[in-house]
């Protein structure tokens, strides 16, 4: 009987003791401390990823410059190397032009809702056809870029 009572008391003591896994008290943290705290946490995994869709437009434009591609500034899409004329500009000249560069970035992302009258859905899915050429010959660079970004976000699993 005494052993049973002692066993029960031991279990109750363990249940009421603070756990090493107890949630930290985040209330006294500043905004910066909260940001640092959440950035340091593992993010789990990325379960559905299209590698080309995870590349930032700035990277695509940088690669387009390196590869000598052009940009159709009317369609806001990458084109094969060209002799600039009319709406076709070198990627390097678009990079140097704030207005054209910003419009291209808007065209390749969903950062600007309603861009060119497109719904978010249409903007998202049509962007793949506009940036594809800039990454088509760079699968290794694309994967390295995505994995680097995931590592910086403390994400440890990717299904692509």
Radius of gyration: 25 Å
Tally of strands: 5
Tell me the fraction of residues in β-strands, as a range. Answer: 5-15%
Strand order of the largest sheet: 3-2-4
What sequence of helices (H) and strands (E) makes up the elements? HHEHEEEHHHHE
What features would you describe in this structure?
- This protein has 160 residues and is mainly alpha-helical.
- The chain is 51% helix and 8% strand.
- The protein is built from 7 helices and 5 strands.
- It has helices spanning 2-16, 31-40, 57-66, 91-96, 98-108, 120-135, 139-152, and strands spanning 45-46, 70-72, 77-79, 88-90, 157-158.
- It has a 3-stranded antiparallel beta sheet with strand order 3-2-4. Strands 1-5 form a two-stranded parallel ribbon.
- α3 runs parallel beside α6 (120-135).
- It is elongated, with a radius of gyration of 25 Å.
- The model is unreliable at 3-15 (pLDDT under 50).
SSE order and pairing:
Blueprint: H1 2-16, H2 31-40, E1 45-46, H3 57-66, E2 70-72, E3 77-79, E4 88-90, H4 91-96, H5 98-108, H6 120-135, H7 139-152, E5 157-158
Parallel strand pairs: 1-5
Antiparallel strand pairs: 2-3, 2-4
